[in-house]
Amino acid sequence: MPLIIDGKEVRQIPTVDKFIQSFPRFKESSNELLNQSTKEVGSKHLLYIGQRELAATWPGDDVISVLGSEDATTCHIMVLRHTGSGAAAMVHFDGSSVAGGLATMISLVKDFTEDMDSGKLEVHLVGGFLDERKNSHEVSDKVLKALCESPDHLHLVTACITHFNTEYRDSVPFPVIYGVAFDVRAGTLFRATFPDKGPDLGLRSARHCTGGKENINIYNPKTHQLTIGPFHYGRLRDVDLFLSLPESHMRKYLSTSPEQEPETFYESIKAALIHLRDFPNPMETVFKGGKPKIYNKDQSSGLWVPQLS
Protein backbone atom coordinates (compact mmCIF):
# COMPACT_ATOMS: atom_id res chain seq x y z
CA MET A 1 0.00 0.00 0.00
CA PRO A 2 1.29 3.49 -0.71
CA LEU A 3 2.52 6.20 1.61
CA ILE A 4 -0.14 8.82 2.33
CA ILE A 5 0.69 12.54 2.30
CA ASP A 6 -2.07 15.11 2.77
CA GLY A 7 -4.63 12.40 2.04
CA LYS A 8 -3.05 11.51 -1.30
CA GLU A 9 -1.26 8.29 -2.20
CA VAL A 10 2.42 8.41 -3.14
CA ARG A 11 2.76 5.50 -5.55
CA GLN A 12 6.18 6.31 -6.99
CA ILE A 13 9.09 6.00 -4.58
CA PRO A 14 10.83 9.38 -4.43
CA THR A 15 14.48 10.10 -3.70
CA VAL A 16 14.87 12.57 -0.85
CA ASP A 17 15.83 15.30 -3.35
CA LYS A 18 12.62 14.68 -5.31
CA PHE A 19 10.64 14.41 -2.08
CA ILE A 20 11.79 17.85 -0.92
CA GLN A 21 10.84 19.36 -4.29
CA SER A 22 7.46 17.62 -4.44
CA PHE A 23 6.37 18.26 -0.84
CA PRO A 24 7.69 21.65 0.26
CA ARG A 25 4.91 21.89 2.85
CA PHE A 26 7.04 19.75 5.21
CA LYS A 27 9.29 22.76 5.61
CA GLU A 28 6.53 24.40 7.69
CA SER A 29 6.15 21.49 10.10
CA SER A 30 9.94 21.17 10.23
CA ASN A 31 10.26 24.80 11.23
CA GLU A 32 7.92 24.19 14.16
CA LEU A 33 10.44 21.67 15.49
CA LEU A 34 13.51 23.66 14.50
CA ASN A 35 12.27 26.74 16.34
CA GLN A 36 11.71 24.86 19.59
CA SER A 37 14.21 25.09 22.41
CA THR A 38 15.79 21.77 23.33
CA LYS A 39 14.29 20.24 26.45
CA GLU A 40 16.37 18.16 28.84
CA VAL A 41 14.46 14.98 29.63
CA GLY A 42 15.03 13.28 32.96
CA SER A 43 15.13 9.59 33.75
CA LYS A 44 11.62 9.16 35.16
CA HIS A 45 9.21 7.57 32.69
CA LEU A 46 11.89 7.71 29.95
CA LEU A 47 12.93 4.91 27.64
CA TYR A 48 16.05 5.87 25.69
CA ILE A 49 16.51 4.19 22.31
CA GLY A 50 19.98 3.91 20.81
CA GLN A 51 21.26 3.35 17.29
CA ARG A 52 19.70 0.27 15.64
CA GLU A 53 17.26 -0.06 18.52
CA LEU A 54 13.48 0.30 18.65
CA ALA A 55 10.74 0.10 21.25
CA ALA A 56 7.00 0.59 21.60
CA THR A 57 4.45 1.27 24.32
CA TRP A 58 0.96 2.67 24.84
CA PRO A 59 -0.69 5.43 26.94
CA GLY A 60 -1.68 2.91 29.63
CA ASP A 61 1.94 2.14 30.46
CA ASP A 62 2.49 3.53 33.97
CA VAL A 63 6.28 3.06 33.82
CA ILE A 64 7.24 4.51 30.41
CA SER A 65 5.49 7.52 28.92
CA VAL A 66 8.34 9.13 26.95
CA LEU A 67 10.37 7.56 24.13
CA GLY A 68 13.58 9.36 23.23
CA SER A 69 16.70 9.16 21.10
CA GLU A 70 19.56 11.47 20.13
CA ASP A 71 23.12 11.61 18.74
CA ALA A 72 21.63 11.40 15.24
CA THR A 73 23.83 13.06 12.64
CA THR A 74 23.25 11.16 9.40
CA CYS A 75 20.87 8.79 11.24
CA HIS A 76 17.07 9.21 11.23
CA ILE A 77 14.72 8.87 14.19
CA MET A 78 11.22 7.64 13.33
CA VAL A 79 8.05 7.64 15.43
CA LEU A 80 5.02 5.58 14.43
CA ARG A 81 1.72 6.19 16.25
CA HIS A 82 -1.85 4.95 15.92
CA THR A 83 -4.17 7.90 16.45
CA GLY A 84 -6.93 5.75 17.91
CA SER A 85 -5.14 3.68 20.55
CA GLY A 86 -2.25 6.10 21.06
CA ALA A 87 0.21 3.20 20.89
CA ALA A 88 3.58 4.43 19.63
CA ALA A 89 6.97 3.08 18.56
CA MET A 90 10.34 4.75 17.99
CA VAL A 91 13.43 3.59 16.10
CA HIS A 92 16.90 5.02 15.48
CA PHE A 93 17.74 4.14 11.86
CA ASP A 94 21.25 4.34 10.43
CA GLY A 95 20.28 2.77 7.11
CA SER A 96 20.51 -0.87 8.14
CA SER A 97 17.48 -3.18 7.86
CA VAL A 98 15.06 -0.29 7.50
CA ALA A 99 12.17 -2.29 6.05
CA GLY A 100 12.49 -4.93 8.76
CA GLY A 101 12.63 -2.32 11.50
CA LEU A 102 9.53 -0.58 10.16
CA ALA A 103 7.64 -3.88 9.96
CA THR A 104 8.51 -4.63 13.59
CA MET A 105 7.30 -1.19 14.69
CA ILE A 106 3.98 -1.66 12.90
CA SER A 107 3.53 -5.09 14.47
CA LEU A 108 4.24 -3.75 17.96
CA VAL A 109 1.79 -0.86 17.57
CA LYS A 110 -0.88 -3.24 16.27
CA ASP A 111 -0.42 -5.42 19.37
CA PHE A 112 -1.76 -2.51 21.46
CA THR A 113 -4.50 -1.48 19.04
CA GLU A 114 -7.71 -3.51 19.22
CA ASP A 115 -9.39 -1.68 16.34
CA MET A 116 -7.06 -0.46 13.62
CA ASP A 117 -10.00 1.24 11.88
CA SER A 118 -10.48 3.52 14.90
CA GLY A 119 -7.61 5.69 13.72
CA LYS A 120 -4.64 5.80 11.37
CA LEU A 121 -0.90 5.14 11.52
CA GLU A 122 1.01 8.41 11.55
CA VAL A 123 4.75 8.77 10.96
CA HIS A 124 7.19 11.40 12.18
CA LEU A 125 10.74 11.56 10.75
CA VAL A 126 13.64 13.61 12.07
CA GLY A 127 17.34 13.44 11.23
CA GLY A 128 20.09 13.68 8.69
CA PHE A 129 21.63 16.79 7.12
CA LEU A 130 23.29 17.83 3.87
CA ASP A 131 26.58 16.08 4.59
CA GLU A 132 29.28 16.10 1.94
CA ARG A 133 29.40 12.30 1.68
CA LYS A 134 25.60 12.18 1.21
CA ASN A 135 25.22 9.48 3.84
CA SER A 136 22.05 11.24 5.02
CA HIS A 137 20.64 11.09 1.49
CA GLU A 138 21.17 7.34 1.50
CA VAL A 139 19.35 6.88 4.82
CA SER A 140 16.50 9.18 3.75
CA ASP A 141 16.08 7.29 0.48
CA LYS A 142 15.95 3.93 2.28
CA VAL A 143 13.39 5.18 4.79
CA LEU A 144 11.15 6.70 2.09
CA LYS A 145 11.36 3.47 0.09
CA ALA A 146 10.36 1.39 3.12
CA LEU A 147 7.42 3.69 3.85
CA CYS A 148 6.18 3.52 0.29
CA GLU A 149 6.51 -0.27 0.12
CA SER A 150 4.88 -1.01 3.48
CA PRO A 151 1.72 -3.17 3.26
CA ASP A 152 0.00 -0.72 5.64
CA HIS A 153 -1.26 2.77 4.93
CA LEU A 154 1.17 5.15 6.64
CA HIS A 155 0.40 8.86 6.93
CA LEU A 156 3.50 11.05 6.94
CA VAL A 157 3.01 13.99 9.31
CA THR A 158 6.56 15.23 9.98
CA ALA A 159 9.65 15.01 7.75
CA CYS A 160 12.36 17.19 9.27
CA ILE A 161 15.06 15.32 7.36
CA THR A 162 18.31 16.02 5.53
CA HIS A 163 17.60 19.28 3.60
CA PHE A 164 15.24 20.69 6.23
CA ASN A 165 17.51 19.76 9.17
CA THR A 166 20.65 21.60 8.01
CA GLU A 167 22.37 24.73 9.20
CA TYR A 168 25.72 26.16 8.16
CA ARG A 169 28.53 27.19 10.48
CA ASP A 170 31.34 28.94 8.62
CA SER A 171 30.04 27.32 5.40
CA VAL A 172 30.16 23.84 6.97
CA PRO A 173 26.83 21.93 7.13
CA PHE A 174 25.57 20.65 10.50
CA PRO A 175 22.34 19.00 11.63
CA VAL A 176 20.10 21.35 13.61
CA ILE A 177 18.32 18.66 15.61
CA TYR A 178 20.29 15.78 17.09
CA GLY A 179 17.60 14.30 19.32
CA VAL A 180 13.85 14.16 19.87
CA ALA A 181 11.40 12.79 22.42
CA PHE A 182 7.85 11.59 21.99
CA ASP A 183 5.29 11.96 24.76
CA VAL A 184 3.14 8.87 24.30
CA ARG A 185 0.21 10.08 26.38
CA ALA A 186 0.07 13.55 24.81
CA GLY A 187 1.01 12.34 21.33
CA THR A 188 3.56 15.13 20.92
CA LEU A 189 7.05 15.24 19.42
CA PHE A 190 9.67 17.70 20.69
CA ARG A 191 13.40 18.48 20.56
CA ALA A 192 15.22 16.88 23.45
CA THR A 193 18.48 15.82 25.02
CA PHE A 194 18.99 13.01 27.50
CA PRO A 195 21.58 13.02 30.29
CA ASP A 196 20.61 9.43 31.12
CA LYS A 197 20.75 7.06 28.14
CA GLY A 198 20.17 3.91 30.14
CA PRO A 199 22.37 0.94 31.04
CA ASP A 200 24.94 -1.04 29.08
CA LEU A 201 25.70 1.62 26.48
CA GLY A 202 29.06 0.05 25.70
CA LEU A 203 27.42 -3.33 25.11
CA ARG A 204 24.59 -1.86 23.07
CA SER A 205 26.98 0.15 20.89
CA ALA A 206 29.35 -2.80 20.44
CA ARG A 207 26.68 -4.62 18.45
CA HIS A 208 26.29 -2.03 15.72
CA CYS A 209 29.99 -1.08 15.75
CA THR A 210 30.85 -4.58 14.55
CA GLY A 211 28.15 -4.98 11.94
CA GLY A 212 24.99 -6.11 13.74
CA LYS A 213 22.38 -4.99 11.20
CA GLU A 214 19.06 -5.72 12.88
CA ASN A 215 17.07 -3.00 14.62
CA ILE A 216 16.27 -4.79 17.87
CA ASN A 217 13.34 -4.29 20.24
CA ILE A 218 14.65 -3.43 23.72
CA TYR A 219 11.46 -3.04 25.76
CA ASN A 220 8.60 -5.24 26.90
CA PRO A 221 5.66 -2.95 27.76
CA LYS A 222 3.74 -5.82 29.35
CA THR A 223 6.43 -6.53 31.96
CA HIS A 224 7.84 -2.95 31.88
CA GLN A 225 11.34 -4.35 31.47
CA LEU A 226 14.31 -3.15 29.43
CA THR A 227 15.83 -6.22 27.78
CA ILE A 228 19.29 -6.30 26.20
CA GLY A 229 20.19 -9.31 24.06
CA PRO A 230 21.14 -11.98 23.80
CA PHE A 231 23.04 -11.26 20.59
CA HIS A 232 26.36 -11.97 18.95
CA TYR A 233 28.78 -9.32 17.82
CA GLY A 234 31.96 -9.66 15.84
CA ARG A 235 35.52 -9.00 16.84
CA LEU A 236 36.99 -5.63 15.94
CA ARG A 237 40.50 -5.83 14.59
CA ASP A 238 43.07 -3.46 16.06
CA VAL A 239 40.77 -2.46 18.92
CA ASP A 240 43.77 -1.52 21.08
CA LEU A 241 45.09 0.66 18.28
CA PHE A 242 41.76 2.47 18.01
CA LEU A 243 41.70 3.01 21.78
CA SER A 244 45.15 4.61 21.61
CA LEU A 245 44.03 7.17 19.03
CA PRO A 246 43.30 10.77 20.00
CA GLU A 247 39.70 11.91 19.76
CA SER A 248 40.18 13.65 16.40
CA HIS A 249 41.45 10.45 14.78
CA MET A 250 38.74 8.33 16.36
CA ARG A 251 36.14 10.66 14.88
CA LYS A 252 37.84 10.49 11.48
CA TYR A 253 37.95 6.71 11.25
CA LEU A 254 34.82 5.69 13.17
CA SER A 255 32.19 8.25 12.16
CA THR A 256 30.21 8.97 9.00
CA SER A 257 30.29 12.69 9.88
CA PRO A 258 33.38 13.37 12.03
CA GLU A 259 33.09 17.15 12.25
CA GLN A 260 29.41 17.12 13.19
CA GLU A 261 29.41 14.46 15.90
CA PRO A 262 28.12 15.64 19.29
CA GLU A 263 30.45 16.03 22.26
CA THR A 264 29.28 12.68 23.64
CA PHE A 265 30.57 10.76 20.60
CA TYR A 266 34.08 10.15 21.89
CA GLU A 267 33.03 8.74 25.25
CA SER A 268 30.33 6.63 23.62
CA ILE A 269 32.58 5.05 21.02
CA LYS A 270 35.34 4.59 23.58
CA ALA A 271 32.94 2.68 25.87
CA ALA A 272 32.02 0.40 22.95
CA LEU A 273 35.68 -0.26 22.13
CA ILE A 274 36.52 -1.06 25.74
CA HIS A 275 33.59 -3.45 25.86
CA LEU A 276 34.73 -5.18 22.67
CA ARG A 277 38.21 -5.54 24.10
CA ASP A 278 37.12 -6.86 27.50
CA PHE A 279 34.20 -9.07 26.40
CA PRO A 280 35.10 -10.56 23.00
CA ASN A 281 32.67 -13.51 23.22
CA PRO A 282 29.33 -12.11 24.42
CA MET A 283 27.44 -15.41 24.50
CA GLU A 284 30.04 -16.70 26.97
CA THR A 285 30.99 -13.56 28.87
CA VAL A 286 27.85 -11.37 28.83
CA PHE A 287 24.77 -13.45 28.05
CA LYS A 288 25.67 -16.52 30.06
CA GLY A 289 23.40 -19.44 29.33
CA GLY A 290 21.94 -17.47 26.42
CA LYS A 291 19.99 -15.27 28.83
CA PRO A 292 19.32 -11.55 28.20
CA LYS A 293 20.27 -8.76 30.55
CA ILE A 294 17.04 -7.51 32.11
CA TYR A 295 16.39 -4.22 33.90
CA ASN A 296 13.46 -2.82 35.87
CA LYS A 297 12.77 0.90 36.22
CA ASP A 298 13.14 2.21 39.78
CA GLN A 299 10.10 4.40 40.25
CA SER A 300 11.71 6.86 42.67
CA SER A 301 14.97 7.54 40.82
CA GLY A 302 13.89 6.64 37.30
CA LEU A 303 17.05 4.59 36.82
CA TRP A 304 17.14 1.10 35.36
CA VAL A 305 18.07 -1.51 37.96
CA PRO A 306 19.39 -4.93 36.91
CA GLN A 307 17.13 -7.85 37.68
CA LEU A 308 18.76 -10.37 39.94
CA SER A 309 19.20 -13.85 38.47
UniProtKB/TrEMBL annotation:
Q: Which domain of life is it from?
A: Eukaryota
Q: Give an example GO cellular component term for this record.
A: nucleus
Gene Ontology molecular function: any one? protein-N-terminal asparagine amidohydrolase activity
Sorted alphabetically, the Gene Ontology BP terms of this entry are: ubiquitin-dependent protein catabolic process
- Pfam families recorded: N_Asn_amidohyd
Q: Which PANTHER family match?
A: N-TERMINAL ASPARAGINE AMIDOHYDROLASE, PROTEIN N-TERMINAL ASPARAGINE AMIDOHYDROLASE
Name of the protein this chain belongs to: Protein N-terminal asparagine amidohydrolase-like
> What organism does the record attribute this protein to?
Elysia marginata
